């Protein structure tokens, strides 16, 4: 048998070899038959591809709108959905996440360095002990100064659409005061730039590698800076709550800045990649009642100027997931310091619940960041001081029960038509407990109703 007949190549297997002793007229007939057969074959191939494409376009979907303030945990919840249905979702992007997490780390460091540049943040006493502390911090600041250049370099290299300002940038939360802002790239699209820059020289990989080496070289000084009692006292005096910021890794600096560091799942959940505008995330569900279906999430930026952006995306949306950062009861809005963040959350909730465009949409409410709420209440921060209608004990169970009832009451009284509200108390950076919530969302009454109605 001829060698080319055994080939799997389409071109070598077709057409077949001509018969022996073929006449010119027979050859012309054969070639014409082969031409027609090839046209038919190619037409069939095109039809198959078109049918596959149409099936993909019309496969069953559930569209979900994810709403909430900046720093409410929207992107973290979406990471949890990715990890729940595709546990290896971030494995191919570990080097990019490492760069993001280290960037989060140096933003926190540079925030502290900015405070040290302010004369009021340094010890005012002239005694020898205070002078020694001041000199030590001055030396630390000098050794950490290259991190400012590293931050600026990474911002230039990885800004997805130019730096973002305001509360969609890095906004370090304060209690009862203004935030300390730093511009930042936006959304997971920026992650792809971190990834590409680690794979090619297009985005200056040499500079990026040098930046990573600088961070590694500064590891011990970063650890020393965060452990410094004078720094801790300054942060407390100025009511700057760095630990409440997503992307906060200072306690883990020794691990994150180590040469062999690779992010854990928990690190990735805590990493900060703010969203500006609307980002679309498609997740294929490969288990349970939604097997083989697409969940299409619209993640909406939470800054004041972004809150109306979701309106064009309500067509065919079946579910709204609203995240309320319940730990923010003692913080002002970054873009309006006169307004309490929790009050603003209630106002947003009223607006969403009463929207006629969402009258047929089912709602899922996530009372998020319960871990930070618990720490605040246990540290003695009085909930009733900021929420005048609250009369119960200053503990997590009582406060969450009050908030649950209040959100439920707003939903019931303002919704255009009766509907069920599904409420969960969450800590989005805890993958295990959030997985339980996701499972309830997937298998609970809401998605069951959507399935029986033909939406899934």
UniProtKB/TrEMBL annotation:
Binding site for Mg(2+): 75, 275
Pfam families named among the record's database cross-references: G-alpha
Composition skew (Basic and acidic residues), residue ranges: 21-32
A GO cellular component annotation in the UniProt record: cytoplasm
Region spans: Disordered: 1-32
Domain of life: Eukaryota
SUPFAM superfamilies the UniProt entry points to: P-loop containing nucleoside triphosphate hydrolases (SSF52540), Transducin (alpha subunit), insertion domain (SSF47895)
UniProt keyword Kinase present: no
Claim: Nucleotide-binding is one of the keywords in the record: yes
Entry keywords, A to Z: GTP-binding, Magnesium, Metal-binding, Nucleotide-binding, Transducer
GO biological processes: adenylate cyclase-modulating G protein-coupled receptor signaling pathway
GO molecular function ontology, one term from the record: G-protein beta/gamma-subunit complex binding
Residues that coordinate or bind GTP: 71-76, 269-275, 368-371, 428
Name of the protein this chain belongs to: G-alpha-domain-containing protein
Species the sequence originates in: Serpula lacrymans var. lacrymans (strain S7.3)
Lineage of the species this protein comes from: Eukaryota, Fungi, Dikarya, Basidiomycota, Agaricomycotina
């Amino acid at each position: 048998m001829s060698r080319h007949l055994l080939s799997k190549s389409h071109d070598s297997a077709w057409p077949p070899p001509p018969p022996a002793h073929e006449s010119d007229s027979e050859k012309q007939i054969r070639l014409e038959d082969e031409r027609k057969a090839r046209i038919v074959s190619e037409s069939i191939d095109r039809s198959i591809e078109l049918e596959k494409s149409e099936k993909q376009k019309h496969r069953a979907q559930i569209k979900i709108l994810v709403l909430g303030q900046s720093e409410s945990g929207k992107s973290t919840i979406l990471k949890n959905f990715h990890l729940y249905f595709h546990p290896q979702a971030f494995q191919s992007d570990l080097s990019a996440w490492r760069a993001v997490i280290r960037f989060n780390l140096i933003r926190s460091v540079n925030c502290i360095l900015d405070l040290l540049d302010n004369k009021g943040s340094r010890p005012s006493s002239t005694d020898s002990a205070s002078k020694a502390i001041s000199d030590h911090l001055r030396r630390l600041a000098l050794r950490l100064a290259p991190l400012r250049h590293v931050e600026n370099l990474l911002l230039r290299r990885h800004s997805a659409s130019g730096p973002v300002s305001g509360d969609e940038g890095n906004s370090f939360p304060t209690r009862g005061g203004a935030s300390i802002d730093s511009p930042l790239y936006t959304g997971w699209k920026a992650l792809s730039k971190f990834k590409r820059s680690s794979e090619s020289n297009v985005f200056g990989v040499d500079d990026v590698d040098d930046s990573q080496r600088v961070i590694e070289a500064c590891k011990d000084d970063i650890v020393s800076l965060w452990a410094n009692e004078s720094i801790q006292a300054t942060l407390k005096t100025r009511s700057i709550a760095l630990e409440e910021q997503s992307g906060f890794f200072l306690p883990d600096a020794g691990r994150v800045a180590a040469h062999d560091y690779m992010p854990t799942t928990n690190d990735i959940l805590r990493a900060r990649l703010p969203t500006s505008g609307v980002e679309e995330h498609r997740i294929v569900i490969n288990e349970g009642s939604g097997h083989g279906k697409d969940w299409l999430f619209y993640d909406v930026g939470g800054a004041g100027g972004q809150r109306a952006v979701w309106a064009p995306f309500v067509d065919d949306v079946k579910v709204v997931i609203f995240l309320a950062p319940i730990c923010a009861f003692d913080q002002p809005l970054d873009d309006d310091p006169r307004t309490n963040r929790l009050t603003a959350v209630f106002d947003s909730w009223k607006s969403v619940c009463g929207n006629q465009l969402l009258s047929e949409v089912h709602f899922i409410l996530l009372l998020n960041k319960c871990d930070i709420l618990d720490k605040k209440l246990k540290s003695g921060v009085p909930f009733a001081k900021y929420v005048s209608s609250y009369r119960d004990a200053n503990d997590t169970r009582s406060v969450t029960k009050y908030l649950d009832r209040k959100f439920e009451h707003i939903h019931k009284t303002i919704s255009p038509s009766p509907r069920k509200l599904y409420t969960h108390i969450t800590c989005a950076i805890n993958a295990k407990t959030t997985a339980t919530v996701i499972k309830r969302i997937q298998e609970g009454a809401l998605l069951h109703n959507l399935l029986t109605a033909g939406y899934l």
